[in-house]
């Protein structure tokens, strides 16, 4: 009923928008004006959906019978309590919306950090693979150099033996020459 009455769809109904609904109750304009004033707690000249529901409740109670003034009084007390609860809920909702927005922002920041860390990890992993490949190549070169060193040592040992043999031969020849010259 509220949605049908809210012609401009602003979340409120004005007296003009619900005048015909109120008049259908058969209550006097004074009673209807009193109910309106009870429900329009902020004197905005408009009712939100909760205030509209209370106004319709009060109209029904007044239409029901002579003891409706008791219902009006309790409804007024209840309206105050309900209005306070509504305001508390609105504050809580606003706080939750802020917290949600903050959480979403934090999540986006965290996701960005995660993506950045993933890229950094991928880069480090690629660098590690390159270094491992370079290490393998360096080890192959070192192994080849070790083999060359071993070959050179072998050659050196062979040449040293050869020099020793030659030295012995030279000494033998020198001793022969010396012996021959003496003879």
From TrEMBL:
Arranged from A to Z, the UniProt key words for this protein are: Calcium, Coiled coil
| A Pfam family hit | EH
Q: Domain EH spans what residues?
A: 1-65
- Give start-end ranges for the coiled-coil region(s): 79-162
Q: Which residues form the signal peptide?
A: none
Q: Which domain of life is it from?
A: Eukaryota
Domain EF-hand spans what residues?
1-28
UniProt-recorded name of the protein = Epidermal growth factor receptor substrate 15-like 1
Taxonomic lineage of the native organism: Eukaryota, Metazoa, Spiralia, Lophotrochozoa, Mollusca
